[in-house]
Amino acid sequence: xxxxxxxxSFIFYSLxxxxxxxxxPLGANRIWASSSIEFFVFMVFAVHxxxxxxxxxxxxxxxFCWPVIIPLVVxxxxxxxxxxxxxxxxxxxxxxxxSLDPSLTHIMFLKTLALxxxxxxxxxxxxxxxxxxxxxxxxxITGLFQGIYAAWLNLNVGMSSPxxxxxxxxxxxxxxxxxxxxxNFLALTLSIGIGVLISQLSLNGSGDKFWHKxxxxxxxxxxxxxVIRLSLIIMIIALILTRSRMGNSAFFIAxxxxxxxxxxxxxxxxxxxxLLIVSFFVLDLILIGAxxxxxxxxxxxxxxxxxxxxxxxxxxDSLPIIAEFPLFGSGGGSYxxxxxxxxxxxxxxxxxxAHNDYIxxxxxxGLPITxxxxxxxLYCLWLSLHxxxxxxxxxxxxVSFGCAIAMVHMLLHSTVDFSLQSPAIALLFIxxxxxxxxxxxxxxxxxxxx
Length: 450
Prior knowledge:
- It is a single chain.
- By secondary structure, the protein is mainly alpha-helical.
- The protein has one domain (about 5-440).
- The chain has 17 helices and no strands.
- Helix 1 packs antiparallel against helix 2, helix 3 (about 65-85) runs antiparallel to helix 4 (about 100-125) and helix 6 (about 180-200) packs antiparallel against helix 16 (about 395-415).
- The longest helix is centred in the N-terminal third of the chain and has 27 residues, at about 130-155.
- The radius of gyration is 22 Å and the shape is globular.
- GO terms for molecular function: ligase activity.
- It is a multi-pass membrane protein.
- It is found in: Membrane.
- Keywords: Ligase, Membrane, Transmembrane, Transmembrane helix.
- It comes from Shewanella hanedai (Alteromonas hanedai).
């Protein structure tokens, strides 16, 4: 293998390793854990710069990735602006900076910079259909690992985590510290897994005769597709075991809505697409869910009320911060230290996040950046739907199907939780946004991946 190819493969598989590693240290929900991800990203990016310099290549990703990279770069520069000394007094801020907590803004700056560099390398090195397939597959493998680990811990009642000795709870957490974040992570990996599976479905029917159909079903059961299907079942079991109300609801709502769109507009629909989608609701949700306690999720949904929840009050009490700092925000990462001085009465618990990503981004970064990031996601969602309708490559269509489910899920789940504040989930979601653009813009492969 030429040296150039070896360098390129090394960086590509390093990116895959980072995706797999990111959720393992407590879901990166500790400063040391998120710092380790940033360290690995910065190291790989340094190798990337050396690689491109030695071969006289441009270090910049292709231009078609700008709709994702530019918003991330602008957000990174915005955080630098919030930390710049001397600007605070110009805008009547109590500190010398626009940020009300520069130390926390610096932490968020490093996270955002790492995500920006990671996305740029994904666009640079996922350069063909084979690598896109492998990158999507590593996301599925990551979800499978999390699903097996979470289900194993949860089904062994009373067992603590063997690595970090985290105490047992009756809701699956896996390597995360918060059940809803595991649910969000599994929903995202499930979405990509569904897309990969759809990309491998046959476009041709198996014939009208019963024996032809039976042979087609038998071939599907004995094929590698069944390994992916079993992996998805394991992830769904773990998702149900999280007992996450919105995690489960948002995933199945997203799956249903994107599936309805696909039934009408998917270009050259695979023959077994409807059967596969129905199986997720009949086999996975109803039958498997009945075994592993989907009724407990249903019970939590029925018992939910505004009177018993304080998340709506947190959102209400966060609105004055947005009204006071609508343009520049209070500073990236500053919600933790800013919010306590704005809520009038103590809550039943301590809220270091808004439990609403839209509100938290608006509080910390201001409305312009929040709208910019929201526009980036909506553009990627539109691009995925457009790819499903217009492209003729099953791999790109299937991956776009999965990306669309993931984005709709995230848009729904972000209304009641703070999943994007987790570096591991943010890195995974940025990877999915990147995949949606790559599936739309990469050239058509000469042969089908499967």
